[in-house]
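Hey all, quick one. A colleague (J.T.) asked me to put the protoporphyrin IX containing FE job into the tracker so the inputs and the structure tokens live in one place instead of scattered across chat threads. No bug as far as I know, just bookkeeping. Sequence used:
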Amino acid sequence: MQLTDIDLVDPDTYVGGIPFEWFEWLRHHAPVAWHPEPAPNRGFWSVVRYDDLVRVHMDWDRFSSEKGAVALEELDDEQLRVRQTMLESDPPRHGELRRITSKRLSARGVGRYEDWIREVARDVLDRALPMGEFDFVAEISRELPIRFLCSILSVPQEDAPALIHWGDQMIANQDPDLAAVVVDREDTEAYRLLPFRSPTAYEVWAYADRQRELRLGTPSDDVIGALVLAQSEGTLTEADYHNYFSLLMIAGNETTRHTISSGMLALLSHPEQLRHLQEHPDAIPTATEEILRWATPVMHFRRTATADTELAGVPIKEGDKVVTWYVSANRDETMFPEPNRFDVTRQPNEHVTFGGGGPHFCLGAHLARLETRILFQELLPRLRSIELAGPVSRIRSNFVNGLKRLPVRIHAA
Ligand code: HEM
């Protein structure tokens, strides 16, 4: 294999599965490698080892999130300004934004929802399992995270289908089956100032405006109420409010969905591990971490070098894009013995599915862990058997690692 054989940018690369053999080759032969990109982008440094990824994430001063966004797309100053969220901010502004919602999404903040989340999980399973044969993504993994998010945001459960639809349109913007506007296949210049270059942002913002109106007269003690208050105090501009709302809606929707689907597929493909968990339900919290490592729903995020520097001995110039690959770091053999083995008892399991530490560590990590654990705690005792009932299909994306369809046949216990 050679470096020129490897194309990590083409979304079609990932339709058949993550190219783990490429990442393994890169970790051993070119851990910080220059990766060309189609114009107008200029290319990036690809960081694939665990330790290097953590160094980049911790060193926010040298590897900025604000100087050039966090996705592969290169943004000009105007785009950066109007599309900025906490993800694309460095301290101290980043802290100001994050503090608006961080308490509500802390372990204690989301812990209050545990019983409610369990009830929703039971409700979704009660409806899905009697079908016997169904698409696990459509009936279970897609439903749960958005219904939980509706309650965290205090918006009506009836709005869940719209929120799911909007999330798909925006984050799966490279997949023609999920998004009406496909970024690498059509001219999206008219949408250059919108998140994910997606016109769906207008619908999300109109929804966010309606939610704000509902709270203006009667301040509410929920996440949107906190955003509305921050706007009235001048911490958020109108654009900040819209972008914050969109970020929470997207981040809290797709990622957990893909974790649940990939976790189910992993257990299906490793029946002895499924059996182990059914016999030892107390092992599900540990298994949740392995499911998160295995699933790695966000493949990469990017930083931009703020000065000439080096990483693993490789010189990096000011302004260069540095892309950190969670999908590779989570299989780094120096960190995870037998990294390609799915092992629900794996401990320690310091995966980087939620980021490599540093200020941007996923704000929803507690919620995502709670949702995933509860779903499997509720589902596994109810399964007498589960098998694949058709071909599995994956999302076309170089950013999200997820399943579109997971047809299963289930005999309930
Ligand atoms: C399994 C599910 C999830 C995964 C894999 C995931 C992954 C990530 C990753 C990789 C980051 C960036 C870390 C970095 O750059 O250092 C991130 C940030 C973020 N996530 Fe999550 N996430 C998940 C669930 C959630 C949920 C449920 C929410 C919200 C309700 C959420 C909200 C956020 C926010 C707001 C940020 C930006 C944090 C910041 O910039 O300070 N995420 N997430």
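Adding what we noticed when we looked at it: Residues 57, 86-87, 98, 247-248, 251-252, 255-256, 259, 297-298, 301, 353-355, 358-364, 367-368 surround protoporphyrin IX containing FE (CB under 6 Å). The two ends are 48 Å apart (CA to CA).
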